[in-house]
Amino acid sequence: MLVEQYAWAKIIKTFLAWIDNLQAAFKTVYESTLGAFVQLGRWFLSTWFYLVPLAIILFVHARFRSFLERVLYGRLRWWRIQGMKAKDPKRFILRCYQEMETGFRVRGCPRASSCTPLEYKVILNRQFKSVQSEVRLITRHFIKVRYSALSLTSDAVSEVCVAYETLLQAARFY
Q1: Can you list the pairs that 90-96 forms with residues at least 24 positions away whose Cβ atoms lie under 8 Å?
Q2: How far apart are CA 30 and CA 45, in angstroms?
Q3: Count of other CB atoms within 10 angstroms of residue 120
Q4: What are the structural domain ranges in the chain?
Q5: Is the separation of the CB atoms in 164 and 81 below 8 Å?
Q6: Whether the predicted model's global pTM rises above the 0.90 cut
Q7: Most buried residue among 79, 112, 126, 131 by CB atoms closer than 10 A?
């Protein structure tokens, strides 16, 4: 008598055939979706490779903005201005005055468009008494550079540089 005639043999044979069919079905699904998963993975890596660092940078900037503005941006601006000092002293003094205006504008004392540098100096001296001498010095040299043809001495440039650094530290612009 053959084993195939028994009921248990037929059940096992059917079960094994079903497993073979299931295995073939899984293999077909795996092979057909593998390409899609590979494409999805490539897209994910190529997109997130750029987006994740950008998201981290934006998060750090948003979270630590005041720290970055105070420390990093101020230092970068200071280095740029120091580079100008050696190359073009007139431009250096103009930039120091512009940075001084920007700093006081951020601190709540903007310069009106109709306000002359001397009038602005008086306003600043009233509101910021601790930096009167620095404001006076930077404004005086700004007026010389901007409105006259007089040449600058190296002492004037170094005085403005020291006054600008003192102003940055005392007024905590950046």
Answers
A1: 90/145, 90/152, 92/157, 92/160, 92/161, 93/138, 93/141, 93/142, 93/145, 93/152, 93/156, 93/157, 93/160, 94/142, 94/145, 94/146, 96/138, 96/142, 96/160, 96/161, 96/164
A2: 21
A3: 20
A4: 3-63, 66-171
A5: yes
A6: no
A7: 131
